[in-house]
Amino acid sequence: MKGFFSIGLLLFFLVATSFSLFTKKKNIWLIGDSTIAIKDTNKYPETGWGMPFVWFWDSTIKVENRARNGRSTRSFREEGSWDPVQKNMQEGDYVLIQFGHNDEVITKVATYTTPEQFTANLERYVAETREKNAIPILITPVARRRFDSVGKVIPSHSEYSALVRKVAEAKEVILIDLDTLTQALYQSWGKENSRWLFLQLKPGEHPNYPDGRDDNTHFSELGARLVAQIVLKELKEKCPELATHVILPKK
User: Fold this and answer.
1) What pLDDT is stored for residue 251 in this prediction?
2) Distances, alpha carbon 3 to alpha carbons 12, 21, 235, in Å
3) Which of 32, 42, 109, 211 has its CA at 20 to 30 Å from residue 242's CA atom?
4) Going edge to edge, which strands form the sheet with 61-65?
5) Does residue 175 have a pLDDT over 90?
6) Which of 143, 157, 31, 164 shows the shortest CA–CA distance to 97?
7) Closest by alpha carbon to 217, among 143, 162, 108?
């Protein structure tokens, strides 16, 4: 009888352990700036693409959106926002890294980084992610909405996007070229219709912005969702092991 009891306990332990391993969540960490970040309600309808991105995944994936408004590769680390990400990431997690908007503006003293500093900072994020046996993914900064006189999109991050691509190639990191992809998105919508993708409001149109808003950097809910879908599509192609965890729309 004692032997059967021991065998029963062993079987229970094996089943419980297998179930625990099967249901263990995998994290997708998002670090970056305001174009990804979660917004306070007093900023709506401004929406970071990381907000709708959360809802595309089954229960085995947890999206940790740690992006913050106005941050660069330097300030995100200096203020301590990287510390909990680095501490809590686990083997097999994914870390999506998108900076550039605030790194490239020389007048932003608190966030500006030289091209050399930007490159070194990206390389350090990659190295520290890999030290935890997690998977870094570099993302070029989303394009701003800018058109020339004939309705063609004007590139807005040429230098710093190129640096992201260079680091991705040199360090053999998965790259999502969101700068190029969002330029194509805006071009497909055209100069006027692409306003719907951004925080474009007339005076009196929304109580959070009584004087209106003419913002060609930050997204509306629609724009954020479309950009999130672009990132999702890229991940499904470049990280096929994640594809099975994407929630497909019901037919």
Assistant:
1) 53
2) 14, 27, 50
3) 32
4) 61-65, 26-32, 94-98, 135-139, 174-176
5) yes
6) 31
7) 143
SS3 content of the chain, % helix, strand, coil (to 5): 45, 15, 40
How far is residue 217's CA from residue 51's CA, in Å, rounded to a whole number?
16
What are 179-188's pLDDT values in tens digits?
Answer: 999 999 999 9
The residue with tokens 């594809």 is 243
Coil, helix or strand at residue 57: strand
Which one-letter DSSP state was computed for residue 34? T
Query: 135 is written with which tokens?
Result: 């998977």
Residue 224, beta-bridge partner list: none
Please give the C-alpha separations between residue 14 and each of 10, 19, 26, 112, 158, in angstroms, as whole numbers. 6, 9, 21, 53, 54
Does the predicted model carry a pTM greater than 0.70? yes
Amino acid at 195: R
HSE-up of residue 124 (Cα within 13 Å, Cβ side): 13
Instruction: Using the predicted structure, report yes or no on whether residue 209 has a pLDDT greater than 60.
Output: yes
Query: What is the per-residue pLDDT across 188-203, written as a single tens digit (0 to 9) for each?
Result: 999 999 999 999 999 9
Q: What is the CA radius of gyration of the chain?
A: 21
Give the distance between the most distant pair of CA atoms in the chain. 87
Strand partners, 136: 95
Residue 213 burial (CB count, 10 A): 18
Taking residues 163-178, report their average pLDDT: 98
d(CA 104, CA 122): 14
Q: Give CA–CA dist 199/213, Å, rounded.
A: 7
Amino acid sitting at position 102? N
Buried b (16+ CB within 10 A) or exposed e, 165-204: bebbeeeebbbbbbbebbbebbeeeebeebbebbbbbeee
